[in-house]
Amino acid sequence: MLDDETIPMKEEALVSKEQRRVRVEHAIVEAARLLVAPDPLDMEALLRILGEATDAASVYFVGVPQSGEAQDYSYTVWHRQQPKTPHWWQELEARLRKYFPTPATQDEVHQLGENLLVVPVLSAEDRFYGYLGVEFADGLSEARQEEVRLLEVLGGLLAAYFDRRATEAARRESEERWRRLVEQLPEPILLVARDALVYLNPAGRRLLGAEAEEDLTGRSLLDFFSADQYDEVARQLRRLEAGEAVPPFEGSLIRFDGEERIVEITAARVVFQGYPVVQLILRDLTERRRAEERYRAFVSTITEGIFRIELRQPVATTTLPDLQVEHLYQHGYLAECNAVMARWLGAERPEEVAGRSLSSLRHYFRPRYLREFVQRGYQVHGEEYALPGKQGMRYFVVNAVGTVERDRLVRVWGSAVEVTERVELERRMVQTLEEQQQAIGRDLHDGVGQLLTSVRMLSENLSTRLQAEQHELAELAQKVVRFAQEASDGVRMIYRGLTPAQLYTEDLTLALEELAYNTNALPGIRCRFETDGQVSIDDQEVKLHLYRIAQEAVNNALKHARASEIVLTLCRRDDAIELCVADNGCGLDPGRARADSLGLKTMYYRARTIGGTLRIHSQPGEGTTICCRIPVGEMSGTT
């Protein structure tokens, strides 16, 4: 009889266990449907599914704070009946804090007391979201294994749901930050998915000539490129979509209005709204390319030589000038030049000299000129230079400016105009002037001088006879003798000034000493000559022109400057000979004086004729210093 009663009870238990398993499986499916739906999760509905499947009295989800700001737990609850205790959540929180004093690290189901099962909602990345609990009215028994399994599965699904929501929120926040950023950027940015435009920032819409984003999204990117570039752009997009790295490339983009724009495209693969897309950053090069074309057309037609020097390693502007010059030779190279400059450098085409080091072009870019360029703060304007050529000296007017970035010289732009014909014309003009002065001197000496000598001799004879006869006109005759002598001496001084004999027979220093001596003999003026004794010039033309420059400078100081002191110096400085005439007069404006004064122009001509440079340092009221500088070796016979 006992066996007969036990069999139906076992069968009834098996049926009940099978029913619970079916209810659990059904609950898992329903809960999974809620958790994967695109709509926000209805937590109370999820708890109700769990409660009805397990015959629980109450089901809880206790959320833990996800930031440091919030400290209290949050509760979502489902009750089969109204709880007897009015402050049930306080008792639940006390039990949780007792059993879980720190964030959970294991997502196992825990039994709290006699009737409560709790599983921590913990993601695979150990991100802790809270607790999922099931409370039974009649206590726990070993027969509730299916409910335990359901609780474990739902805890994992709920953690995955929270992970997905956190990831989506982070992605949305990241995309929003990205959108706010690119909306303000001046660079056009396009996003492309399978050739179709999915996003354009305002700069991108302006580049393509569209008013609204809706006019472009969905259109094929290839519609905006010319047919000859279609295949190349499509090929680059395929490479990007395949995950390859593509270097920046150029293309001709056609706007809505038909205008063609040259762009440089930098592309990379990114994720937008959860999907992989290709991000294109466009750089409009149209105006730059047009400017380059105008520049090339300009430099190819002008008669000036244009050049650009780049430094492979920039040099600090605080470096000593001589070290900077050596750095230019070591690391500088001719990046580009036009055909005119190439011919001056000894090449037929620019390509033959482009890329050559500056040290290999030392015959044109000479150390003295580079040093002067550095010392003047990387700027020279209208400077005239003389260079030895195969057929004699060649003369150029050079302008150059350096590009300084972060206190470092990185490149040099320059232009040059050959003025050899002009200088030769000036040389002939100065030579003609010199010949005329010498002719005048000879005429004065041989003509007027001889006549004055005859007048003086006749006057002396007449004065002697009148004095012997004690004639009343004897005194007058003596005055005629004195005047004739003074006129003869004046003619002799003019002759010596026009044709200084010391320049042909002796050194330049003697001629300058005599010039200073004669000037010092004038009333109200002090004049002296100084030299370091290291200058020796054999070239007659160089000596003559230097003397004439000194002579003209002294005359200007006497006539116009109202000076009381004049100092002439001739010395050797570095690799050049320098002649200077300084006075303490009223000064002048060098710019106006150079434009208006024939004497100053003649000095400039003379300096260029012998391969030198003339500089005037003066300010109104501060005196004037005129210096002629000739590089040693520029002219033969100069040491």
How would you describe what is shown here?
This protein is of the alpha+beta class. Helix content is 46%, strand content 25%. The chain is built from 17 helices and 20 strands. The strands form 4 sheets. The chain has a 5-stranded antiparallel β-sheet. A 5-stranded antiparallel β-sheet has the order 7-6-10-9-8. Strands 12-11-15-14-13 form a 5-stranded antiparallel β-sheet. Strand 6 and strand 7 (196-200) form a beta hairpin. Helix 1 runs antiparallel to helix 2 and helix 8 crosses helix 10. It starts with a helix and ends in an 8-residue tail after the last strand.
Beta fraction: 25-35%
Beta strands, count: 20
Strands side by side in the biggest sheet: 2-1-5-4-3
Secondary structural class: alpha+beta
**What do the pLDDT scores average to?**
80
The total of helices stands at 17
Question: What portion of residues is helical?
Answer: 40-55%
Low-pLDDT parts are: 5-15
